[in-house]
Amino acid sequence: MADFPARTGLRIRSLSGVHPEVRRACLEFAKWLRHSMEFPIRVIVYLKKDYRIRTRARQQVTASFFAPYDKNDEPYIRVATGDYEESLIEVGKDNALAGYLHSIAHELVHYQQWLADAPFSERQAVSRAKKVVWLYAQTREHP
Length: 143
Prior knowledge:
- Helix 1 crosses helix 3.
- The chain has helices spanning 20-36, 84-91, 93-115, 122-137; strands at 10-14, 43-48, 53-54, 60-61, 63-66, 76-80.
- The model has no long low-confidence stretch (mean pLDDT 95).
- It has a four-stranded mixed beta sheet, covered by helices on one side. The chain has a two-stranded antiparallel sheet with strand order 3-4.
- Helices cover 45% and strands 17% of the residues.
- It is built from four helices and six strands, in the order E-H-E-E-E-E-E-H-H-H.
């Protein structure tokens, strides 16, 4: 066991090349999440400029959650945001940004499952993420 207290909280790290509007929306969402959820073990969300992220299993995904075996190690989330310009044209600004917020919320459900030592459920992650984004949407006009 470490001689220092474990870090807590939710942090967003926007890597180079992420669209400023995506960064802004995710930072605002994280601020709201900090008041809506507990983060007893620090989790960092890395916003990446890539179109896809490769998991350890070599799958191409738009978001992922790394769940360490040891709860003394910090988990992290990665979200690909490289398709923002295309999404902006296809579905509009609000829906494009909401997609990234949903990805974050989805991976945070997996974070909660990991904290509880519960099996990962995609069905639950999708359902709860929709609810979280809907609740957030009630607090503002645009993401």
